[in-house]
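Annotators were shown the component list below and the corresponding predicted structure, then asked to write short factual statements about the assembly.
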Amino acid sequence: MESYNNLMSDIMDEMDPRVLEFIKNHVTTFTRWDTIRFFHENPNTQDTAENLARYVGRSPAVIRQEAQEMAEEGIFRSVKQGKHTVYLLTNDPDRRRLIANLVEAARDRTFRMKLVYHILRAGGQQ
Amino acid sequence: MTKRVRTGVPGLDEMLHGGFLEGSAVLLQGAPGTGKTTLGLQFLYTGIVEDDEPGLLITFEEFPYSLLRDAQSHKWDLRALEEANKLRIIFTSPNILLSSLQSPSSPLNRTIMNWGVRRVVLDSVSHFTRITRDKQRLRDIYTTVVNGLKREGITSILTSESSTTRLNPEQDKLSYVVDVILMMRYVEINSAIDRALLILKMRGSAHEQGIRRYEIRPEGVHVTDRFEGLQGLLTGTPIRLPRS
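Structure shown to annotators:
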């Protein structure tokens, strides 16, 4: 059974190592995946967690926490504007390119299965 | 003499006697599907490609990726312009835009300053009613938005949804603040839908008074000839005048 699990893990890890590392460290829930994908498609979004929750169809409470964590991890930027905290996609071109590679790769069904596997392994049911 | 800002819409610049006066705030009113966003994109695209004037499109409801796709159908490669830092499509909400305009260090203001943005399209001001329905507060909001753009000498188009020829109470507040009011609307002629465009107001400049027909062609909005021999176009169902 252990060798089967190891084999499975090896197959699921077969992808660009930088993308794999990004998934394992940052794409740990489906909410994160939806939010990252949203920002990739709409890269100049500037909005609050509450509005982001509306755009990706998720709970505001969950997005509030995830967006703040992703800002601390350098995926998003957070800017204090009056009474609002506004989130934007990182300006780092390398990170933007990595996200673009991930979203592009996820057009492939097999890759998506690998992504889902890693999110579930990370315990990110939501 | 104030510089004219060409819209790039064939026929419209002629109606405007050369274009908007630089720094004008333009209210572009029309029902859904009349081509307001297309005209706005054309205005930005022309500014960048023909006049080297960087532009911003601020959208509250339509996702940027769908705008990029729509623009592609007119062969306007907005993604390339974004990559060249000539265009930015900002997706935000009314209250965040408002606080951005009031904060000099906001990402929006930094983009305006750093890029030397000359043209802005805001799609659409109707969404400010999400913040308040209070008439005075709404007027204050419109003043903040228009002044925030005028301060930088930006020529702006503010789209607004309306299916009638009358300004609704919220937009009525805006009509005092803007310099130009353009109206795009559907008209029914001989059991078919046609499109009409007119200039209701243009501060500081003469302009054509007539109501012209326009089409949305693969290359964008194209204003053509005046409606002749018809009366009551603004009702949406004009009557044909008897031949003399």
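Statements collected:
1. The two ends of chain A are 28 Å apart (CA to CA).
2. The interface with chain B takes residues 41-48, 51, 55, 79, 81-84, 86, 88 of chain A (CB under 8 Å).
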